[in-house]
Amino acid sequence: MSGVPTSTSRFDKRRARTRAALIEAAQGLLVEGRHGAPIQEVTERADVGIGTFYNHFASKDELFAAAIESALSQWAESLDAVDDGTTDPAALFARSFRLTGRLHRLEPQISRVLLSQGHALSQSPDGMGPRARRDIRAAQEAGRFLEMDLDRAMVVVTGAMIELGHLLHERPGLDEAETVDGVTSDVLVALGLERAEAERLCAEPLPSIDATAGLG
Fold first, then answer.
1. Can you list the pairs that 53-60 forms with residues at least 24 positions away whose Cβ atoms lie under 8 Å?
2. Residues 97 and 48 in one domain
3. Contacts of 152 (CB under 8 A, 6+ apart)
4. Does the pLDDT value for residue 83 go beyond 70?
5. Does residue 91 lie in a domain region?
6. What stretch of H or E contains 182?
7. CA-to-CA distance for 110 and 68, rounded, in angstroms?
8. What is the pLDDT of residues 56-75, one digit of tens each?
9. Is residue 77 part of a domain?
């Protein structure tokens, strides 16, 4: 009978739920800075047996790598889902930075995982690094940003984003939009825009993150 789940599909769904529970448990430990927690604690948090753990991951290191990759993939999906026709590379960079900054509050668990692994946020193919490099290079070629070494530019960009994330978590009373857009403006000025132009870009309306993020 069509539409009736097969035993295989039920098994696959159950397996996917178990894997997701293990990844979520690992992300919680990463947020707490407890990279050395034993596998038994991971399985207890995920409410699965140790034997089940090894059906999904060969080691704790493999699980933690998957936990970071999962967070990065969700972060990347939220940014890639946005396409409002903008072609100005400086505006694209500003929009991406502003959206990423807002995700610290919208998805605090994912944010804290990535902040605990700052290098992943900037260096992974799914992190903000490749996108930022692409947009900065394009803005330099278009004469929108100053010519400067890309690695130095990324020190400014990633350092600002990581510290912005910590600031938003540590001071929940801060106005999110004002803080994120203010830091974005500062970064744009550091990259070569005039202050008035930086503030103009930061005043542009953003697409709804709730509608585009797609984060579960």
1. 53/22, 55/15, 55/18, 56/15, 56/18, 56/19, 56/22, 57/22
2. no
3. none
4. no
5. yes
6. helix 176-191
7. 9
8. 999 988 898 888 778 777 77
9. yes
Q: What is the pLDDT, as a whole number, of residue 9?
A: 83
Question: What is the full DSSP assignment across 129-141?
Answer: HHHHHHHHHHHHH
Q: How many domains does the chain have?
A: 2
Give the alpha-carbon dihedral of 14, 55, 25, 11, to 10 degrees. 0
Do 100 and 143 lie in one domain? The reply is: yes
Would you call 214 exposed, middle or buried from its count of C-beta atoms within 10 A (0-12, 13-18, 19+)? Answer: exposed
pLDDT of residue 2: 52
Same domain, 204 and 134: yes
Q: Is residue 64 part of a domain?
A: no
Q: What letter represents residue 214's amino acid?
A: G
For 151, the domain range is: 69-212
The model carries a pTM of 0.69
Looking at the structure, do residues 87 and 189 belong to the same domain, yes or no?
yes
How far the first Cα of the chain sits from its last, in Å, is 31
